[in-house]
Amino acid sequence: MGRSSREMVVKVVLLGVVLAAVSLCIWYYSIPTESDILVLDKSVLTVILDDIPATKKDAISLAQERIINATGVPKRSFDRYFTLIDTSHTQFQWQLVYNVTGNPDFTVFLVKKILLEEGFGISDKYIVGMVGRDYFDAHFKRKSFESNIAYYSYIYGYSHNPGAGDFELSMWVRLGNDRSVIGQHVVTTPQEITVSREQAIDIGRENGLKDPLSGAPVLVGGIICWRVVWQHTPTARDYDNQTVYGFDVHCTTGEVIGEHRYIRPTPAPPPPIQTGQITSLIEKLGFEDVEDGAMIQVNVMNSVDETFSVVKTFGRTVVKEGTIENADLTLWIDRDIILNALKSDDVVSYLQDNATSRNVIVELHKNMVLLQKKGYMSLYERVKKGA
User: Fold this and answer.
1) Are the C-beta atoms of residues 250 and 257 closer than 8 Å to each other?
2) CA-closest candidate to residue 122, choices 166, 174, 59, 191
3) Over 90: is that where the pLDDT of 135 sits?
4) Of 9, 10, 33, 52, which sees the most CB atoms within 10 A?
5) What is the dihedral of CA 349, 351, 357, 359, to 10 degrees?
6) Shortest CA distance to 34 belongs to which of 309, 298, 313, 308?
7) CA angle 70-319-333, nearest 5°?
């Protein structure tokens, strides 16, 4: 074969190799990876503002901005996923409801913040309506206003009844964003303290309690009481007999309005694994390195059958309770392994040293090329190393 013929053969071979490589690349990069999948970890977004938008147009604009910040969806793709289907407006908030592709409807609340003076003004008025202005001024002192809750010190001193003693109780009123009272722990009548601590302890003795006894003020259903308690370490017999160890004595009438018995505590089951724990575990394994569209199902073993779905969506890792369709892989992991790994200084190293085929199982549901393209084969290898 002449030199020109050999050169021609080499060129043909090289061309074939190049074409094969190009074909492989085209095939590899043409495999769909669902990189534009949108998964939401909640259906409500509440935004607290000093002032809410004045117009519907401004409210829609602000809601869109906050949704983009919360989900990572690019502005150019917003209308592809979110469709506004309803708006409503009150003096204190805007409510905007969106239909979301592949997700339940999403509601945005733009809420006017309740400031300290406004909050205390509402809660003060509520308490005054029950006990009267004079009683309120004599016994209630403002403490703080946090997370829509007005906290008070309720003080009853010697000037009202020298024999009753001087004490302080914590009370509170919780407000909704619409400025209504949605919860409270306050005295609900202008109750006077006519029974002293010592008298309440005597009432406890008269009703069968044994010494030594203690008495402390408590609020029970809006009524101030002395809780008289037997200072005693319960025995097995006390639990068997459900022995009475305390009474709630009405601070005005001296009436016993409640009793307390020793009830043998039942062993509580271990608390279930929480979404936040799975999020922390997955992030420490390096899930941020995988591509958008990566989907993992996590099943917790030797627990209460918790199942979680993990999705990389628009740069965010979203962990939700429940199963997920079309997962790339399923990670079965023992409850104790999760807890101990999170307590360790290095989650990856802990799993490498302690993972076995019985406490960590990885099931692959997609081909290796697709998994490699999504970028988390290294995650798989890190979990399996040493197992």
Assistant:
1) yes
2) 174
3) yes
4) 52
5) 160
6) 313
7) 160
DSSP structure string for 324-336: -TT-SEEEEEEHH
Tell me the CA distances in angstroms from 153 to 119, 121, 122, 123, 144, one per residue in order.
16, 16, 17, 13, 10
CB atoms within 10 A of CB 167: 16
List CB contacts of 55: < 8 A, sequence separation 6 or more.
none
Whether the per-residue pLDDT at 374 is higher than 80: the answer is yes
The token duo for 280 is: 């922390």
CA dist 173 and 190 (Å) reads 17
Average of per-residue pLDDT across 348-363: 88
| Distance from C-alpha of 169 to C-alpha of 152, rounded to nearest angstrom | 8
| pLDDT, position 18 | 33
| Token pair in block for residue 157 | 């001193």
Contact status, residue 316 vs residue 58, Cβ threshold 8 Å: no
Name the amino acid, one letter, at 66: R
The torsion angles phi and psi of 244, rounded to 5 degrees, stand at: -75, 130
Residue 247 makes CB contacts below 8 A (sequence gap 6+) with: 203, 204, 207, 209, 227, 228, 256, 258, 259, 260
Q: Looking at residues 158-187, what average pLDDT do you find?
A: 84
Overall pTM surpassing 0.85 (yes/no): no
Residue with tokens 């259906």: 43
Q: What residues contact 175, with CB distance under 8 A and at least 6 apart?
A: 114, 119, 122, 123, 148, 149, 150, 181, 182
- Give tens-digit pLDDT for 64-102: 999 999 999 999 999 999 999 999 999 999 999 999 999
pLDDT, tens digit, 9 for 90 and up, residues 283-293: 998 888 889 99
Compute how many other C-beta atoms are within 10 angstroms of the C-beta atom of residue 266.
6
